[in-house]
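Board notes, transcribed. Complex of a protein with zinc ion.
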Amino acid sequence: MIVKDLSNSFNPVPKERRVINKKLLKNKKGICEVCGKNGQTEKHHIKTKGSGGDDTKENLIEVCRICHTKIHSGEIKVNNKG
Ligand SMILES: [Zn+2]
Ligand SMILES: [Zn+2]
């Protein structure tokens, strides 16, 4: 007996879409480095470009919107120890 249901459970995703999804996964780490919450994160420069900060991994942290706001308002302080 041929199980025809297999073709139903196999849901092919177009190649283009797969690439987009992979990119999304890479870009979206999703964990705030300040509070550790899982969600949507934004990149924050520890050292602003004005004070010599670069676009390096060491100078960028992923933070949630709430922590990001707090960082900029001075409520949370992040140090670049390295
Ligand atoms: Zn956070
Ligand atoms: Zn920022």
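The radius of gyration is 20 Å. The mean pLDDT is 79.
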